[in-house]
Design goal:
Order of helices and strands: EEHHH
Strand content: 5-15%
Radius of gyration: 23 Å
Shape: elongated
Number of strands: 2
Structural class: mainly alpha
Strand order of the largest sheet: 1-2
Distance between the termini: 64 Å
């Protein structure tokens, strides 16, 4: 099944999945695109793009994450406060930790 799709203002025909190890597909520099090379390139693109939100630490890095358990009542208060202030829970907790550690 072929389908026409728009990618970056270009009309492209999607001809479905192909087996890159069976069909001869070439990159712009003339090298052959194999399944392994496609996986490698996709990984590089995802790493450069960053998965999820931008890093809070530095460009190209992943921000460290903390996972903690809290009582139901504290979680409810946190969610309510974040909603009241139109902020994310993460943003609110980061500010609270900064304030606590600065004192």
């Amino acid at each position: 099944m072929t389908e026409s799709v728009r990618i970056h203002d270009k009309q492209v025909t999607d001809r479905g999945a192909i087996d890159l190890d069976q069909q001869d597909v070439r990159l712009a520099d003339g090298t052959r695109l194999t399944e392994a090379k496609a996986e490698e390139l996709a990984g590089e693109i995802l790493d450069r793009a960053g998965r999820g939100r931008p890093s809070l630490s530095r460009s190209g890095a992943r921000s460290p994450q903390l996972r903690l358990s809290v009582p139901d009542e504290l979680r409810s208060r946190l969610l309510e406060r974040a909603e009241d202030e139109h902020r994310s829970v993460s943003n609110l907790v980061r500010d609270a930790l900064e304030h606590y550690l600065a004192s």
